[in-house]
Amino acid sequence: MTSTDGNLVKEPKASLNDTVVVNSVSADEEDDIPMLSSHTLEALKEFLAEQNQAAAAAEESVDADGEEVSLVTENWNLSQFWYNRQTAETIAAEVAALSETLISPRVVCIACPTLYAYLKKIVPGVPTQLLEFDKRFEQYGDDFTFYDYNQPEDLPSSLKHSFPIVVADPPYLSKECLDKIAETVKFLSKPGESLLLLLTGEVQTMLAGELLGLRPCGFRPEHSSKLGNEFRLFTSYDPSARLGGWQHDI
Ligand SMILES: C[S@@+](CC[C@H](N)C(=O)[O-])C[C@H]1O[C@@H](n2cnc3c(N)ncnc32)[C@H](O)[C@@H]1O
């Protein structure tokens, strides 16, 4: 589901309008005790279990070789929803395959820290820069560059037109956000040369085509926390048989 302001949102679980009393109490205590329906209680339990799962996934995820990939805990106020392991590995493998075709591969991850972490495990030799708003990622040293999409070109000039591979995952599903992220993508990419990958909601399909010439692939990105939005991976190039192929009929 997308909120009216274009935020990414977790799936709604249930409404709070039934009136089955869960706690057994005496009549005079009854007024002070909150009442939840059994349906709502189940939804609450499911939500808490998911939160625990996401927190556990945040502490450590394990890649295909059984090696740990450390991630920080999601902050939903920053629209942080990390890829699940399969999605992170699929995109990292795609970036690795693209890197092999280039003489001097260099990757920039715009607001996708999980991908950065997986790339450092899978292809540690490929120079990779993370542009992020969350300063917890300063832990990556010189590979971290502070980035606020509201200032799309407020970046070191050394990064201009210097990345043959650009991957972006905008925090919001608004036109305003994608317009600005597209400015950043153009600032960072080598004009006419770079391979672009964008992960965002399906609702952005037309805009991704208009702004950056991207088309959706068959592959559906998934997250550790279940989101209500349908997600897609868009690319500037035909991935052939990889990523579920390129969708031509849009
Ligand atoms: C939808 S998440 C994408 C994360 C990706 N799914 C992953 O697993 O790496 C959006 C990202 O945008 C970042 N973000 C939040 N506010 C931002 C802002 N004002 N400018 C740039 N990035 C921002 C969040 O920290 C988060 O990493």
UniProtKB/TrEMBL annotation:
Its main location: cytoplasm. It comes from the Eukaryota. Pfam families: N6-adenineMlase. It is found in: Cytoplasm. The keyword Methyltransferase applies. Keywords: Cytoplasm, Methyltransferase, Transferase. One of its GO terms (biological process) is methylation. Its EC number is 2.1.1.-. GO terms for cellular component: cytoplasm. GO terms for molecular function: nucleic acid binding; protein-lysine N-methyltransferase activity. The keyword Cytoplasm applies. S-adenosyl-L-methionine-dependent protein-lysine N-methyltransferase that methylates elongation factor 1-alpha. Belongs to the class I-like SAM-binding methyltransferase superfamily. EFM5 family. This is Protein-lysine N-methyltransferase SASPL_124852.
